[in-house]
Amino acid sequence: MENTKTIAKARQGLRGTIEIPGDKSISHRSVMFSALGSTPVHITNFLHAQDCLSTAACMKALGASVEFESETSLVVCGHGLHGLREASTIIDAGNSGTTLRLMMGILAPQPFLTTFTGDASLHKRPMGRVIKPLSAMGAKIYGREKNTKLPITIVPAEGKLHGMLYESPVASAQVKSAILLSGMYADSPTTVVEPFTSRDHTERMLEAFGVETKKDGTAVTIEPVESFHAPSSIEVPGDISSAAYWLVAGSVVPGSHLLLKNVGVNPTRTGILDVLEAMGAKITLENERVSGGEAAADIRVEAAKLHGTSFGAEIMPRLIDEIPVLAVAALFAEGDTVITGAGELRVKETDRLQAVTDEFNKLAPGAVEASKDGLVIHGGTKVRAATCFSYDDHRMAMSLAILGAAGEGAEIERPECVTISYPAFYDTLARLQA
């Protein structure tokens, strides 16, 4: 793809039906967990994007069979819970924080050495938050900058890991998942307590593999696990984080009417629906169902007059990835929107709070102010066309594209990073505009 992307102003409403690509979080876990079973699992609607392909490559390197039938369909078969094998070379997690953090949880208890690397962005991201609790369980993990950054090497622990009670300072599904996955191999139960409940895809999928977790308030406990009973098939629902761009575009581009098919509506992920509804969006759920322990629905959205709102730390685990595109909605709403408790965004693929502030202000001068852990967005600020930068961050690129389409157009530098989670994004936008 060329190194800039021109986004045209949507002169009429966006109309059409969109098949939402598979959920990124669930796609990662479907491959990892299937590789820990001993019978073939047929995975459909898998997200064929860079991050999830990194996970597939990792599991293959560790001895699992991973066979693609098509871009979105594959069969994965492992050698059982204790059947992973030492990789013959360094494992590359690419741009994927989920791959790296969850794999550390799975590999910390293994009797062999693993070394991880990743791309330039992943080398900057904080891994101490996972390494610290795993080390407390007896894992031996070594990394750059006092065991906090890539490259990271996991050395076999002395004996079994120890179960423990861990009070996590952050509500993070990746931290929680890494500890629970290590806990499967520990000598006694392992409990993670979070300040707020983070997304629960790991717990739901473990259940599909016959592993029970116990929930008590914001605490989750796992007992040591003897074996995995893999389901014969997993259908991955569409990713609400990818649907988010169309939920916002459909709300703010006048005359829009969109139907989003097969969207995961797991309650730990639907913060975006709550916030948009609080802003006055017209969103309806249809054809609600459950697949592989995950709730899914078709979502209809049409243009509406939005107003500003405030939200903070409590809802953040349920919509952290959607903040950049929610900031677009806030820009076209009446009045101010105040976002707090989002400090986690400073350590994503880029510092998203700063990136949203710098880039949105090119398109709508003076519209966004950043605080230490949030944003204030002045709705109704005049929007103009401008050139902006993606920071090689897929969520920034897509949010800027929606802002350009809803505003006066935009030129996005380094647009190709959308392949990390939504390779068909620009084509879909062009089709809805046509």
Largest sheet: 4 strands, mixed
Walk across the major sheet and give the strand order. Answer: 2-15-17-16
Number of helices: 14
Helix content: 25-40%
Which fold name is given in CATH as the topology of the largest domain?
UDP-n-acetylglucosamine1-carboxyvinyl-transferase, Chain
Strand content: 25-35%
Q: What top-tier CATH class of the largest domain fits best? A: Alpha Beta
Overall average residue pLDDT: 96
Oligomeric state of the chains present here: single chain
Radius of gyration: 21 Å
Class derived from helix and strand content: alpha/beta
Under CATH, the homologous superfamily of the largest domain reads: Enolpyruvate transferase domain
Cα distance, first to last residue?
21 Å
The 3D shape can be described as globular
Instruction: Indicate the CATH architecture of the largest domain.
Output: Alpha-beta prism
Number of domains: 2
What's the number of extended β-strand segments? 23
Catalytic activity: 3-phosphoshikimate + phosphoenolpyruvate = 5-O-(1-carboxyvinyl)-3-phosphoshikimate + phosphate
Domain Enolpyruvate transferase: 11-429
Binding site for phosphoenolpyruvate: 24, 97, 125, 174, 352, 395
Subunit structure: Monomer.
